[in-house]
Write a structure and sequence with these properties.
- The chain is mainly α and 240 residues long.
- The chain is 75% helix and 0% strand.
- Helix 3 (46-63) runs antiparallel to helix 5.
Length: 240
């Protein structure tokens, strides 16, 4: 972006591009934009640096790279600690995503600690913005009462957090067997060539008992390299 000289403006351009690239399955491009953001943000404020560290975290969240997230937890937690003087939803959200990674890897103690830290810095009024990692955490723990309550929160700021918002909702609705809800939401998400597409197809296949839709979803997961998500189909159909 040679025509822009303002570092804040450049950061906003790169940051806005990451979820768009990720939604189209262009994860390499999303990482490049995140790297360009870091090249600028690392010289700016703690708040800029937290946003910059959050971008690859959100890509890894979508890819279900739990080991990568767990390995980067200390660095992320340090960035959050340095940014606590600035109110920011990413303070809590980043910690919740790290908690999710540890929960999926079987370290429930670390997951609970991170979740508690997130709750302490979350503040009030951000339930919708923080719902996606909380949905995944409830799902991972088999806490269907919490899952049902969380799924009733309409998503917000999906343009910031990227396609993981819709992925988590579709998977939760399958497990909860909310077939009418799936029929209402999933068709609009089944846009060809996008990351939400296979999640929506899988949800519709589950709701309709349609093996062809499930097969199409499986193929799209494979094409996008979403191997962990692809492997969840059997568990989701079993209500887990």
């Amino acid at each position: 972006m040679p025509q822009l000289e303002d570092p804040d403006g450049l950061c906003e351009v790169y940051e806005s591009g990451v979820p768009v690239a990720a939604a189209m399955g262009q994860f390499g491009e999303a990482r490049q934009l995140a790297d360009l953001h870091w090249d600028i943000a690392r010289r700016l404020s703690a708040h800029h640096r937290l946003h910059s560290i959050s971008l690859p975290l959100e890509i890894a969240e979508m890819l279900a790279d739990w080991s990568v997230l767990a390995g980067d937890t200390d660095r992320i937690a340090d960035a959050v600690a340095r940014n606590l003087s600035t109110p920011c939803m990413r303070n809590a959200r980043d910690l919740l995503v790290c908690a999710l990674a540890h929960a999926y890897l079987g370290d429930e103690g670390r997951a609970r600690d991170l979740e508690l830290e997130a709750e302490l810095v979350a503040g009030a009024g951000h339930e919708r913005e923080l719902s996606t990692p909380r949905i995944r955490l409830a799902h991972a723990r088999g806490d269907f009462e919490a899952l049902r309550a969380l799924i009733r929160l309409p998503p917000r700021r999906a343009f910031v957090w990227g396609p993981s918002v819709f992925a988590a909702r579709m998977d939760a609705l399958i497990t909860l067997r909310e077939h009418a809800w799936i029929e209402a939401e999933a068709p609009g998400l089944a846009q060809p060539g996008t990351v939400p597409e296979p999640f929506a197809l899988r949800a519709l296949g589950a709701a309709r008992g349609d093996d062809d839709l499930l097969a199409r979803a499986d193929e799209r997961f494979r094409e996008l390299g979403l191997d962990w998500h692809r492997a969840q189909t059997e568990h989701l159909l079993a209500g887990r």
